[in-house]
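User: I'm writing a tutorial on reading structure tokens. Could you give me a worked example: one chain, its sequence, then its tokens, then a sentence or two explaining what the tokens reveal?
Assistant: Sure. Here is the example chain.
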Amino acid sequence: MKIAITAASGRLGTEIVKATAALLSKEDVIGLARTPDKAKDIGIEIRPGDYNDKSTLENSLQSVGTLLLI
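And here are its predicted structure tokens:
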């Protein structure tokens, strides 16, 4: 089961991503960010996560079983 966490490039989102990745396998945690390049150094898969781009967001949520909205 993969979990996606929004706001992965923000302060709170980054800390939640890191804590979740420490509890689960890093392969099971996906970060969503409006600007994925800002979150590239977190150490997990980062996908585009702009709420205003429905098509891209739907693609980014493929294979995700749980979504944590920050």
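What the tokens reveal: The radius of gyration is 11 Å. The first helix runs from residue 11 to 23.
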